[in-house]
Write a structure and sequence with these properties.
The complex is a heterodimer of chains A (605) and B (396). Chain A is mostly helical. Chain A contains 19 helices and no strands. Classes of the chains: A mainly alpha (605), B alpha+beta (396).
C-alpha cells in the first residue's frame, strides 16, 4: 500500500518558482482552483472597490469635477459589472469549489479538468473586460446594458463591444461550473450522506447551480442578439427597423433576477454554517431551509418585471409581478426566522465570523424590507432608478453576500491555510466595515426619496442632498479602511499566524474532519456518515475513518494544460469578433472545436 | 477571543444614533425633488400606498431586529455553561412564521394592486394633452391643442387633468418630476406606419393641486450627459396658464437699435436657426430645443447653468466644456458635426442678450427650484395687440 503522497501526481523535485507557477497553471485540484477563484475575486473586489471610491469621491460634493462624465459612466458601469460577474459569482464559486467536495466527502469535483476550464475562461474573460481601460474605452452604458443605448448609433466605439463579448465569455465559465457542481453533488456524496443529510451550504451550492445553468443561457441569448446587432447589422433592438429595445429588458431581467438569487443563496449557505457552529446548536428547521431556498430559486423566475414597473407593461403585468415579488418575501422571511431560532437558546460565541454572520442577518433584513417597499409598484414609480434602489441592492448584496463572505473567510480560512486569522485585527476589520457599510448606504435611502436619480455623474446644490452624499462618501472611505485591515490580517497571519487544528471552531460538518489544510486526496478514507452533524454526533467513527489509510490505491486526476489552451482558444474566438468580419470568428470556432476534441480525448489515467 | 460584552449594545446604540442623525438631516431640509410632498392626485395616492407599506414593513423590521438584539444579549456564551439543547425545529413555529408574513403581505398587496389600476386609468376627455419627447439630453414639450412648443421647462394649469403623452426621439429616458408623482420611461417610438398611428406612448395622468415650480430630471441612464437632463414644471392657476399660452404665441420684439435687436439679427442670420426655433422669427429649426421665451426659463442647457446673460454667453462660446456631448457647436469648438462658429465675443454677447430678453415684462424666476418666485403673479406678461400665431400643425 502506497502512501497518499506517492499516489497523487505531484512528483518531488526542485521547487523552483516557475515549477510552482506551472503546477498552478495545470492544476485540476478543486482546492487549488478554489483558491485561484477566491484570489481572483478578492483582487477584483479591490478593483471594484477602488472604482466605488472614485465614484463616491466624485459625488461627495455637487458639481464636482473630480471625474469627467465619460469616465464616471465607465467607472459606474465597470463597478456594477465587476461586482456582479467578477466578484459575487466567482467568490461563490470559490467557496463551492473548495468546500463542496470536502463537505460531501469527495476527493474532487466530478469533472476536474472542466473545473479548471471554468476558471481559466473566467479569468481570461475578466482580463478581457478590464483591458478596455487601457484603450480608454471601458464599457459605459451601465451593467444592465439597456438597448437601444447599446446600439452602435448611440454607443459607438469599443466600450460596449468589450462588455457584450466579455460577459459572453464569463457566462461560458459559469455554465460549465454549474454543470460540474450539480453532477458532483448528485453523484459523489460520501456513503450514508443522503440529500437531506447534506450540509446546508452544499444545498445552497446545489440550488444555485441549477439557477446558474438555467439563467445564464438567457443572458447568453440576449448577448448574442446584441452582438449581432453591434457587429453584423441585425436589428433585434433597432426601433427604426421594427426591433424593440424593451425585449432586451425582458431578457436581461429574466436572467437578472434569478442572478440575484445566484448571488445571495451562497451567502445564505455560509450563514447557515456559521450561525449553528457559534451558537453550538444545530440549524433550526433544516428541511424548511432547504425547501424555502428551492422555492426562492423557483419563484425567482416569476418576478423579473419588477425591475420594469416604469416601462409601461400595463396594470395586469404590474399586478402580477407585484404579487409574485411580495410572495417571495415570505420564504425569505422564513429563513431569517430560522436563523434567529437557531441562535435562540444557544451559547453564542462572538468570533469575527459570527459577528459577520449576525451583521448579515441585521443588514440583509433591512435590504429585504426596502425590497417590499419597491414591490409596492405604484410608489415604485417614485423609487425606481433612484438612490433608494441603490441603497436597497447594496443592502442585499453587500449586507447579504459580502458580509457573509467575510464571515466565511474567517470561518474557513484556518481550513484553507492551516493558519488562524487574527481575531483582534478581525474585530477591527469587522466593526469598521460594518459601520462604513451602513454609513455609506443608509443615507442613500433618503437621497433617493429626496429626488436623486442613480447613474448621474453629478448633482446640483439646489437639490439639498449634499449632506447625505457627503456622509455616504465618508462611509465609503471607512469601508475601504475596514477591508484593507482584512488584507493586513491575511498577510500578517500568513507570516506569523497561530497554526490551526483540524476543527478550530468545534464545527459539525465533514470538512472539519480532515487536516488543515487538507491533503490532496481530502480524506485518506472517505468516512461513512449517519447524521446531519457527523462531528457532533459520530465524531470518533468519522475521524477514525478520515485518518486511516485507504485499502485501495487512490486515483487522482493528473495535471493538464488543455483547460488553459481551450480557454485561450475561446477568448481568441471572441476577440476575432472585434474584426467585424464573419469569417475570423468562424475560424476561431473551428480552432476551438479542434482544441476541445484534444481536451476531451486527453488520457487521464 | 471573545469580544467585550458591552461592545454589541454600544455599537447598536451608535448605529441608531447615526441613523437618526441621517434621517433628521434628510427630512429637515427643503429638497425640491422630494417624493414626500406631492402636489398632484397621482402623487398623493401613491404616497398613501407607500405609507401603508412603510408602516407594515417597519413593524416587521423593528420586531426582527429587536429579537436579534435580545438573542445576542441574552444567549451569549457564559463560562461553564452546559451544551445547549439541540433543537432541530418545530413545525408549528414554521407554520406560524409563514402565515404571519403571508397575512402582512396581503395587507400590503391589496391596496397596492388597487393602486396599480387606479393610477393607470386613461386620462379624462377634457385632459390637457402635453407631448413629452425625450432627447439626448433635453426635453421637448408640445401642446397640440395650442400649437405651442417649448423645451426643458413646461407650464401646466392647476386643477385641470393633464395627460403627459411621452415618447423618445432616440434612446430610453425616464420622465420624473417627483412632486408631480411617479416617473415613467420615455421609450423610443416605433416607426410610423403609413396612415396609421403606430407610435407607442407612455402616459402620466394627473391633476395638480397647487401652483409652483417643481424640478425634475431624467431617471433612466441615457448616455453621456444623463446627469444634466433636468426639467422644470411650472404649475399655474388656469388663467395664468392661458395667458402663458397666449404669450408663447406672441413674438417678443426687441426695440430697434438695442443690443438685443442686433442679437436677433445675428441669431436669425447664423447657423443657430438650423436647429432652433424662436416663434415669430425666421428661426424654425427643429433638431434642438425650441427657444421661444427662453428668457423665462430657469436654466440653460436642461440644467447645465442658471439662466443669465453671462452664462448664456459662456454657453454659446463653448457648450461642450459646460455639458459633455452637447451637439451644438461653440465659437471655439466644433460640435454635432458642425464647425466652430468663430463668433466674436461681441456677437456672442449680443445673441446672449437677445435670448435672455425673450420674456414677458416683469417675469421673475424663482431663486431656487420649488419656490414660487416673487413675481409669479405676473407670469406671463402678455404684450398687447397679440397677433395669434397659427396654431401650427406645421410645427408639430
Amino acid at each position: 500500500m502506497a502512501t497518499a503522497e506517492a499516489r497523487v501526481h505531484t512528483s518531488p523535485g526542485p521547487r523552483g518558482f516557475w515549477r510552482e507557477v506551472w503546477s498552478w497553471v495545470t492544476t485540476v485540484d478543486h482546492k487549488r482552483i478554489g483558491i485561484m477563484y477566491g484570489a481572483t475575486a478578492i483582487f477584483f473586489l479591490l478593483v471594484g472597490g477602488l472604482e466605488a471610491i472614485l465614484l463616491r469621491t466624485q459625488l461627495a460634493l455637487p458639481e464636482n469635477e473630480f471625474l469627467s462624465a465619460d469616465l464616471y459612466n465607465q467607472l459606474f458601469t465597470m463597478h456594477g459589472t465587476t461586482m456582479v460577474f467578477l466578484v459575487g459569482m466567482p467568490m461563490a464559486v470559490a467557496f463551492f469549489n473548495y468546500l463542496v467536495p470536502l463537505q460531501i466527502g469527495a476527493r474532487d469535483v466530478a469533472f476536474p479538468r472542466l473545473n479548471a476550464l471554468s476558471y481559466w475562461v473566467f479569468l481570461l474573460g475578466a482580463i478581457f473586460l478590464n483591458v478596455s481601460f487601457f484603450f480608454g474605452a471601458a464599457p459605459n452604458a451601465g451593467w444592465t446594458g439597456y438597448a437601444n443605448l447599446t446600439a452602435p448609433q448611440y454607443s459607438p466605439g469599443l466600450n460596449m463591444d468589450f462588455w457584450v463579448l466579455g460577459l459572453q465569455i464569463l457566462g461560458i465559465g459559469s455554465i460549465l461550473g454549474g454543470v460540474n457542481f450539480i453532477t458532483t453533488i448528485v453523484n459523489m456524496r460520501a456513503p450514508g450522506m443522503t440529500l437531506m443529510r447534506m450540509p446546508i451550504f452544499t444545498w445552497m451550492a446545489f440550488i444555485t447551480s441549477f439557477i446558474i445553468i438555467t439563467a445564464l443561457p438567457v443572458l447568453a441569448v440576449a448577448l448574442f442578439l446584441l452582438t449581432f446587432d453591434r457587429f453584423y447589422g441585425t436589428n433585434f433592438f433597432v426601433v427604426a427597423q421594427g426591433g424593440d429595445p424593451i425585449l432586451w429588458q425582458h431578457l436581461f431581467w429574466l436572467f437578472g433576477h434569478p442572478e440575484v438569487y445566484i448571488l445571495i443563496l451562497p451567502g445564505f449557505g455560509i450563514l447557515s454554517e456559521i450561525i449553528p457552529t457559534f451558537s453550538r446548536k444545530p440549524l433550526f428547521g433544516y428541511s424548511v431551509m432547504v425547501y424555502s431556498a428551492a422555492l426562492i430559486g423557483l419563484l425567482g423566475w416569476g418576478v423579473w418585471s419588477h425591475h420594469m414597473f416604469t416601462v409601461g407593461i400595463g396594470p395586469i403585468g404590474d399586478a402580477f409581478f407585484t404579487i409574485s415579488t411580495m410572495i417571495i418575501a415570505i420564504p425569505t422571511g422564513v429563513k431569517i426566522f430560522n436563523w434567529l431560532a437557531t441562535m435562540w437558546g444557544g451559547s453564542i460565541r462572538f468570533t469575527t465570523a459570527m459577528l459577520y454572520g449576525i451583521a448579515t442577518i441585521f443588514s440583509f433584513t433591512m435590504g429585504g424590507i426596502s425590497g417590499v417597499m419597491h414591490a409596492t409598484s405604484p410608489h415604485n414609480l417614485q423609487q425606481h432608478d433612484t438612490y433608494f434602489v441603490v441603497a436597497h441592492f447594496h443592502y442585499v448584496l453587500f449586507g447579504g453576500l459580502i458580509l457573509a463572505i467575510f464571515g466565511g473567510f474567517y470561518y474557513w480560512w484556518p481550513k484553507l491555510t492551516g493558519k488562524m486569522l487574527d481575531e483582534r485585527l478581525g474585530k477591527w476589520n469587522f466593526w469598521l466595515t460594518f459601520a462604513g457599510f451602513h454609513l455609506t448606504f443608509f443615507p442613500m435611502h433618503f437621497a433617493g426619496l429626496l429626488g436623486m436619480p442613480r447613474r448621474v455623474f453629478t448633482y446640483f446644490e439646489d437639490l439639498n442632498i449634499t449632506g447625505l452624499n457627503l456622509l455616504a462618501t465618508a462611509g465609503a472611505y471607512l469601508t475601504a479602511v475596514g477591508i484593507l485591515l482584512f488584507l493586513i490580517n491575511v498577510v500578517k497571519t500568513a507570516r506569523s499566524g497561530v497554526r490551526a487544528p483540524e476543527n478550530p471552531w468545534g464545527a459539525f460538518s465533514l470538512e472539519w474532519a480532515t487536516t488543515s489544510p487538507p491533503e490532496e486526496v481530502n480524506f485518506r478514507t472517505i468516512p461513512t456518515v449517519r447524521t446531519r452533524e457527523p462531528l457532533w454526533l459520530e465524531e470518533e467513527a468519522v475521524l477514525a475513518q478520515a485518518r486511516s489509510e485507504s485499502a485501495a490505491p487512490i486515483h487522482m486526476p493528473p495535471p493538464s494544460w488543455w483547460p488553459l489552451v481551450l480557454a485561450s482558444s475561446i477568448l481568441l474566438t471572441f476577440c476575432l469578433v472585434l474584426t467585424n468580419l464573419w469569417w475570423p470568428p468562424v475560424l476561431g470556432l473551428a480552432l476551438t472545436f479542434i482544441v476541445a476534441i484534444n481536451f476531451a480525448l486527453e488520457p487521464t489515467h | 477571543m471573545i469580544i467585550g460584552r458591552r461592545s454589541v449594545p454600544r455599537a447598536a446604540a451608535w448605529c441608531a444614533a447615526a441613523v437618526a442623525a441621517v434621517a433628521l438631516s434628510g427630512c429637515a431640509e427643503d429638497a425640491p425633488q422630494t417624493t414626500f410632498r406631492p402636489v398632484t392626485d397621482f402623487g398623493i395616492l401613491i404616497n398613501e400606498i407607500f405609507v401603508n407599506t412603510f408602516w407594515w414593513t417597519m413593524a416587521v423590521l423593528v420586531v426582527v431586529q429587536a429579537v436579534l438584539l435580545y438573542i445576542v444579549v441574552r444567549f451569549r456564551a457564559r463560562p461553564g455553561q452546559p451544551k445547549p439543547k439541540p433543537v432541530h425545529g418545530d413545525v408549528r413555529l414554521e407554520i406560524l412564521w409563514t402565515l404571519i408574513p403571508a397575512v402582512i403581505v396581503a395587507f400590503i398587496a391589496v391596496p397596492t394592486v388597487r393602486g396599480i389600476f387606479a393610477t393607470q386609468q386613461a386620462a379624462p376627455q377634457d385632459a390637457l394633452v402635453i407631448d413629452v419627447i425625450g432627447h439626448q439630453w433635453w426635453w421637448e414639450f408640445r401642446y397640440p391643442d395650442y400649437g405651442v412648443v417649448t423645451a426643458n421647462q413646461f407650464n401646466l394649469p392647476a386643477g385641470r387633468p393633464v395627460a403627459l403623452r411621452m415618447r423618445s426621439a432616440d434612446v430610453i429616458h425616464s420622465f420624473w418630476v417627483p412632486r408631480l408623482g411617479g416617473k415613467r420611461d420615455v421609450n423610443p417610438a416605433p416607426a410610423r406606419i403609413e396612415g396609421e398611428e403606430a407610435v407607442r406612448y407612455n402616459w402620466i395622468n394627473f391633476t395638480a393641486h397647487e401652483p409652483g415650480w417643481f424640478p425634475g430630471q431624467c431617471a433612466e441612464f441615457c448616455g453621456l450627459s444623463h446627469g444634466v437632463m433636468r426639467t422644470m414644471a411650472v404649475v399655474q392657476e388656469p388663467a395664468e396658464f392661458e395667458a402663458w399660452v397666449e404669450a408663447m404665441r406672441t413674438p417678443v420684439e426687441p426695440a430697434p437699435g438695442t443690443v438685443e435687436a442686433r442679437g436677433r439679427e445675428l441669431f436669425t442670420r447664423s447657423v443657430c436657426i438650423a436647429c432652433h426655433t424662436v416663434q415669430g422669427t425666421t428661426a424654425a429649426g427643429v433638431l434642438g430645443p425650441n427657444l421661444t421665451r427662453m428668457g423665462e426659463r430657469w436654466t440653460i442647457g436642461a440644467g447645465a447653468l442658471p439662466l443669465s446673460r453671462d452664462n448664456m454667453a459662456a454657453w454659446l462660446r463653448d457648450p461642450l466644456a459646460i455639458k459633455p456631448g452637447t451637439l451644438m457647436p461653440g465659437a471655439v469648438r466644433e460640435g454635432g458635426g458642425m464647425p466652430a462658429t468663430n463668433m466674436s465675443d461681441e456677437d456672442i454677447d449680443a445673441i446672449a442678450a437677445y435670448l435672455v430678453s425673450l420674456r414677458g415684462e416683469g417675469v421673475r424666476l424663482p431663486a431656487a427650484p420649488g419656490q414660487v418666485p416673487a413675481g409669479a403673479d405676473a407670469i406671463p406678461d402678455p404684450e398687447p395687440a397679440a397677433q395669434p400665431a397659427a396654431p401650427g400643425d406645421d410645427i408639430l
